[in-house]
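Box S1 | Example of a co-folding query
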Amino acid sequence: MTVLFTHPDCLAHDTGPGHPERPDRLRAVLAAFEDEAFRDLQRETAPLAEESHFLLAHTVRHVDGVHQRLPASGLAAIDPDTIVIVSSGSWDAARRAAGAVVAAIDLVMAGRAANAFCATRPPGHHAERTGAMGFCLFNNVAIGALHARQMHEVERVAVVDFDVHHGNGTQDIFESDPGLFFASTHQLGAYPGTGAAAEHGVHGNIVNIPLPAGTGSAGWRAAMSGSLLPALRAFAPGLILISAGFDAHEADPLASMRLTAEDFGWGTEAICEVAAEVCGGRVVSTLEGGYDLDALAASAAAHVRALMNAS
Ligand SMILES: [Zn+2]
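Box S1 (continued) | Returned holo structure for zinc ion
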């Protein structure tokens, strides 16, 4: 069984007019799951994460800083680049986004679901231990990984990140911990500029595969099959998390890779095959980027269809 976690609170994170990371993204994804093909997708309400969950991956100073800067009305920027915009609804949205991953992990670790997808926002993979960055307040996937280790005694947790941007935040939180593994494909030179192939982590637990602008299906699939998936298999995690950003799609306005929805389906299937070999198929995926609404909806649908096929 595949479970979908979401919550209407995630639509109340208002980033203002013209911001690419907008509520319509989530509406587009959820609309795709109305299709008959998703009749068997189990729907669950994302709970609110506790502050203790945020503190698994972040400093008190960062968590308090976000809380204190939330406006009673209107919008506020909370990062130096002023691209992390918050509104009064952002706190609960962030709690749902992290809470979804935590609850999905609890369900999958209990054997009550094979895998899960968290359709939430704000995204998380740019948020570092000490600060918000790149549309991200808190690092949902890192919070989930640390929760799995603490509450479910999973010794090794892996994150696969195929968002077109490097998950600098996840790398920051994982790089000195030998029980955490992070592997990313991303567009070379794109925001935030980190993720060189030479960045291996303190314990060789980081795998970065930057790909040139214009890389399409063949190049990305070769990178996955040739580098990322063998490294993932070798790490032998007890749980695999996916930072599922769909902005490497050819229609995406924020980047210049040329993947299709089918590629995301293929990649998901391949990750699930490794999961079946090493960790009983346990996979929890969470939405990161993806800014063309049609491409995002089609890609998320292909991703979840692959999760359902593997469950
Ligand atoms: Zn992205």
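The mean pLDDT is 97. Residues 3 and 102 are 13 Å apart (CA to CA).
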